[in-house]
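Changelog-linked ticket: glutamine example.
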Amino acid sequence: MSTTLSAPPLGLLLEDIVRRHRPRQNAGSVPTNIPFLATVPFDRFGIAVATTSGEVFSSGDAGVPFSIQSISKVFTLAMALQGGRSAGLWSRVLREPSGTSFNSLVQLEAEKGIPRNPFINAGALVVTDHLLEETPDAATQLLRFLTEQAGSPGPFIDEAAAAGELDSSSRNLALAHFLKDFGNLTRPAAVVVENYVRQCSIMMTCVQLAKAGLFLANNGQGTSGTVLSPSETKRIGSIMLTCGMYDAAGEFAYRVGLPGKSGVGGGILVIVPGRCSICVWSPRLDAKGNSLAGTAALADLSDRTGWSVF
Ligand code: GLN
C-alpha cells in the first residue's frame, strides 16, 4: 500500500508510532462509572490497520483485548440500518453534533427527548431500543455481528465488567427514563440500559476491531459480503466525522482529518475511505473522554501518511 513518498513501509511506521506514543507516565483519566477500566495498566498501546486490499498491519498491544465501550455505537447503528430496518429511527434521533458531553442530561431535556445523534449515550439508547424490536438480546446480536466482521472468534462480552458498570449506571438510567417520559423509548428503561451496557462491555483487540470496521472503508463490503449500501456507509462515515468524538469532534477533525469513533475504554476506530480501517488503543483519556495517546498517534499517522478525507 502506498503512503506518502517520505513515509517508511507501513509495518515499520506503526512500530515507530508505538515507540513514540506509548505512554511513559500515568497521565490522563479513567471513567469513574466503570470500575474495571481503572485496572488496565496505563502504558498499554496498540495499533492495527486493515486495508481494503486484505492486508493487516499491527504493532504494540494490538492483540490485547480491551473494552470497546462507545465504539459499539457505530456497529449498532450499522445493524439498525441494515436491510431497510431503519424505518422510524431517524424521527427518533437526529444527526447533529451535540457540542455537549456524551452523557449530558440537560440537552436531552431541553430538546424534548430527541437525542442529537446516535453516538451520544441517549442516541445509542434509542438505537438499542430500535434493535430490541427484533431481538430480546441486542448485545449478543452485536457480538455475532462483530465476530463475523472480524472474521474469527475472539470478541466476547465481559459480563463482570458489565455488571460493575450497571451498578453505577444512574446517569444512563436517567437518560433512558427521560427518553421514556418523552415517549421515545418502547422497552422498559432498565432493559434498554442493560443491553446497552453489555454492548459497551464487548472485549476486542485492535486487530479485530480494525477488521470489523473495514466495511466502513470499503463501500459497505465486509469480510463475508455486503453489510451496507455505499450510500448508507457514506452516511455512517459522515456521522463519525461530525459526532464520533462527542464535544471534541471539531478538534479531532482538525488534528486527524478522518472520521472516527472513540470509546472510554481508550479505543478509537478511524476510517480512511477506500483505503483502510485503523484501530488504536491506549486507556488513559483526555477531559472529553477520548484516548490521549490514541488521538496523538492518529494525528501523527495521518500527517506522516497523508491519509485524510481533506
Ligand atoms: N459505557 C459508557 C457509558 O455509557 C460508554 C461511554 C463512552 O465510551 N463514551 O458511560
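Closing comment: Example verified and attached. The mean pLDDT is 95. The CA atoms of residues 262 and 268 lie 4 Å apart.
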